[in-house]
Design goal:
Elements lengths: L2 E5 L3 E2 L5 E8 L9 E7 L6 E7 L4 E3 L7 E6 L4 E6 L8 E7 L7 E2 L3 E5 L2
Parallel strand pairs: 2-11
Antiparallel strand pairs: 1-3, 3-8, 4-5, 4-9, 5-6, 7-8, 9-10, 9-11
């Protein structure tokens, strides 16, 4: 059974950097052809795709966030990580990690609340 679990700080201040880790069990993140995404949902808004890292290690980022975003992985721990820099209160959201976002083979983590506030 594939499971994803997000972890990271829940409260940050403006200008700080968010770092979230998704720990995957039940499948290797290097397994072809899976992709591993970060998605967020701000309060009262729709899901927003942030970016992905493919089984090959290639990353694809949303143009609206790519100047502030990095996605990396640690294959020895079967984890992938999101870094989002220069936070503002508009980055407040529930952050999810997905396997194969928007796909029939999609699996989602439970999500983690991130609040950006001074």
């Amino acid at each position: 059974q594939v499971q994803l679990q997000e972890s990271g700080p829940g409260l940050l201040k403006p200008s700080q950097t968010l770092s979230l880790t998704c720990t995957v069990s039940g499948v290797s993140i290097t397994t072809n052809p899976y992709t591993w995404s970060w998605v967020r949902q701000p309060p009262g808004k729709e899901l927003q795709w942030i970016g992905l890292i493919a089984h090959s290690g290639i990353t694809v980022l949303s143009p609206s966030l790519d100047s502030r975003t990095s996605i990396s992985r640690d294959t020895s721990k079967n984890q992938f990580t999101l870094q989002l820099r220069s936070l503002t209160p508009e980055d407040t959201a529930v952050y999810y990690c997905f396997r194969d976002y928007n796909s029939p083979t999609s699996v989602r983590g439970q999500g983690t609340q991130v609040i950006v506030s001074s």
